[in-house]
Amino acid sequence: MSASSQAATNNLEAFWMPFTANRQFKQAPRMFVSAKDMHYTTADGRQVLDGTAGLWCCNAGHSRPKVVEAVQKQIAELDYAPAFQMGHPKAFELAARLAAMMPSPLDHVFFTNSGSESVDTALKIALAYQRAIGQGTRTRLIGRERGYHGVGFGGISVGGIVSNRKTFGTMLTGVDHMRHTHDPERNAFSRGMPENGAEYAEELIRIIQLHDPSTIAAVIVEPVAGSTGVLIPPKGYLERLREICSQHGILLIFDEVITGFGRLGSPFATDFFGVTPDLVTTAKGLTSGVVPMGAVFCTSDIYHTFMTGPEHMIELFHGYTYSAHPLACAAALATLDTYDEEGLLTRAADLAQYWEDGLHSLKDCPNVIDIRNLGLIGAIELTPIAGEPTKRAFSAFLKAYDDGLLIRTTGDIIALSPPLIISKEQIDELFGKLRSVLNAID
């Protein structure tokens, strides 16, 4: 490496890192240089057990041979093809495969490049659909407090995490929010879905009565709220949201960027909960994080509503330069093959009880005030340090990294979502390391 290249590599200042305490990081960098299966390797040669599937995305683990080979082959064959008025075979193959995985009538797919783009796409489709069926007064979008729907202006508008919203102005107009479902007084340390809280769905009725249903286009929720700290839906809650939306002509959007592709022990949360929305946003696990890609599923009714007018006219004025990128399609197809061959889309169902028992065994650790779980997702909520919110969990994050474990924190909540290939022995290792971390931090 040349001296100039070495200087550029060692200069950490130029990169403004996302969702990162930049000054803290650049004083003591944490660098990954390679990854394989369940582990990252650091710049100083240590192995770090991946307790978060990268960033909720590496569901099949790291550097899986079939995916690596597919991407290498694809870039030599067709590096890029435009998706506007052109196509390439893998885009259609992937869309058909994905549509076959979803319950009917969710059988059409629009490709994006991220969860944020998937959300904005779904919101735009919902608004355009209502207009197309003569319901152009339906322009209002309903999200939920503590919801996370990416970082586009649409996503942060319907999202409900304060820090993601407060510095970015008024955002989209005509947006309202339901109450979140977190109820620690009644549901702390619930195993799986909480017994209490289905009535929080009735909050949607209040909003409908406030604005009138003729003004509301869509409701968007995460089936399991992930980035806010793993909020599990109460029993009956999602079913009631579906009933209310259907009754009032409102589209229901499930944001499955986290829950999609096996995280709960079924291909999608719509399968797990038995609730079928009108639109589903996905990303992350679609390619196991290898190449950025997202996909929005919609019903046949929504799709065919747009397929009118002169055949030479564009039906939806929306899309991205990198929609259905050849490398992303190749990665996604190979990821789906890996999921199928190893039974990964349902493997979390086999491990869920073992995972739950290991997670809840940490109840007696210092400062633990709640534990939540579903499928291969877990959260440990800690008592905040007075006057220093987020510091206790961040201290746990740093200590875990030093001890060879990658966790994720949001506020004073530790979130866990390991690759679906995790073994029971590795689950034991993960919770053993985490117990030591929780016992060591102040």
TrEMBL record:
CDD domains: OAT_like
EC category: transferase
SUPFAM superfamilies: PLP-dependent transferases
GO biological process, one term: biotin biosynthetic process
The keyword Transferase is annotated on this UniProt entry: yes
Keyword Protein biosynthesis part of the UniProt annotation: no
Origin superkingdom: Bacteria
Entry GO MF terms: adenosylmethionine-8-amino-7-oxononanoate transaminase activity; beta-alanine:pyruvate transaminase activity; pyridoxal phosphate binding
Cofactor: pyridoxal 5'-phosphate
Stored InterPro entries: Aminotrans_3 (IPR005814), Aminotrans_3_PPA_site (IPR049704), PyrdxlP-dep_Trfase (IPR015424), PyrdxlP-dep_Trfase_major (IPR015421), PyrdxlP-dep_Trfase_small (IPR015422)
One Pfam family here: Aminotran_3
EC identifiers of the protein: 2.6.1.18
Sorted UniProt keywords: Aminotransferase, Pyridoxal phosphate, Pyruvate, Transferase
Family the UniProt entry places it in: Belongs to the class-III pyridoxal-phosphate-dependent aminotransferase family.
Name this protein carries in UniProt: Omega-amino acid--pyruvate aminotransferase
